[in-house]
Write the structure tokens for this entry.
Amino acid sequence: MEKTDPQALFEKLASNGQRMFKDFSTSETQEMASQLAHSWNTIVKRSMENPDEWLKTITGFYQDQFNLFINMFTPPADKAPQLTDRRFTSPEWQESPVHNYIMQSYLLASRQLTGLAADSSQDEATRYKCEFYIRQFIDAMSPSNFALTNPEILKETLESKGQNLINGLDQLMKDFEKGRISMTDESAFELGKNIATTPGSVVFQNDLIQLIQFKPMTEKVNERPLLIIPPCINKYYVLDLSEHNSYVRYCLETGNNVFIISWRNPDEALGDKSWEDYLNEGTIPAVNAVKKITGAKKINGVAWCIGGTMLATTIAVLAAKKKKPFASATFFTTLLDYSDPGELRVFIDESQVAQFEQKLKDGGVMPGKQLATTFAMLRANDLIWNYVVNNYLKGKTPPPFDILYWNSDSTNMTASMYTWYLRNMYLENKLIEPGGVMLCGVPVDLRKIDCPIYYLSAIEDHIAPWKTTFISTEVLTGPMQFVLGASGHIAGVINPANKNKRNFWINGEMGKGADHWLETAELVPGSWWTHWDAWLKSTGGKTIPAPLQVGSKDYPEIEAAPGAYVLART
């Protein structure tokens, strides 16, 4: 990294400092501090109900800390065990007795606090919330996060004569201006140049969507075009990253005529757009446009996460109106039943949802940066503190990584849609009930989704837990192929066939729950993409000559992909 002039940097810091710290003191930060204090008070209050056990616990903790202290400079009889916690794997933590003691003391205190939270006599929801916020505190207070208690940083500071801290401060101010922590070298990517490069054009647009049709890459294509519905809380190009890991490109290369919705990043003016509007002005017009452009009677649908929930409600609404345009539906890591939303439940209870409803009652948007921070908190060590240390203490620019570039490109959600989604799905779980919600003038019944279904979940998914997504197999009535991929919410989906990495499970016994399904499932090495392609072809549709151009007379090309909507940054 190029050296930074310290004097110019500190002058800039002085002039911008007040604004920086004012921005830092957001309501979200205050809410987190409030939740932490409440969690700690709850734990202490519950623990004091059994004072003898509390005294025994605290006495044991201080004894363990004392033993650590008196043995600080005593060499171990055998080689110290290698820590798996990557925060402390560098040899400097073992070489310095003082820093080794700091590390061991921290880990001991972490176990003690975690145990207190887990063993407190509270109801499950309260205990889970306490454990979450205590973990946030523990992660934040790691000695690896501070220059004076991290021997790696001290060594680097001495060797670079402090240049790492100067560079880190410069990076910190740049990130303050962006309003987010840099997770990758964002200068390495440009949409349409080396990411989201699959050739195509926007062939339809309105206030909410741009519909992109990609140029076919085979001489013949399936007569049933493929419509992809990505999540509206992210940009579509997670499915069209670099050429080597583009799902869109794979679909084209395997003989599909591919369309994708590019959701608009809403501003305050669109704050009253509801879930119903996202169907009436988003998915349903896209379905109609795809059918008219291609002349197809049936289409194949693919959707991810909340996009999958949109696809499901779209199919159910159209079925209630005696329309069945989908020949098949593919769902990636999609919740339809929200009885157990996993780690996100810590942010969703009656009190917190009511706060959001009050805050957003006059419309506007839920800022994408705030949503991104919420998801990052679920993996704070990996998605926050790892970059704090690398960027601000080591003064390094993180390496280029296309998925992390996309992850940093957040989008807003309209106030109306966000609050309706939280209450009706996460909080009250109404979508799973026949007629539990009304959309587009009809009751929604997911049991009307009777087309062939490919349902992909990910075994390490913390956004859409796979055992909760599995409940969908008991609700949807169409022929079901349930597939469980390795890894998590993103990497479990973006698993290119050309790399042939990881594995997936198929063909477990249905009807006896998620655990039984996995026990009886077949483990298959490699990417699920090829399995999905074979499944899609098995659902029918003859091959026809690929169109010579995208769009049609009634749907002319508006602009080249990736289109203007995806370029708008929060």
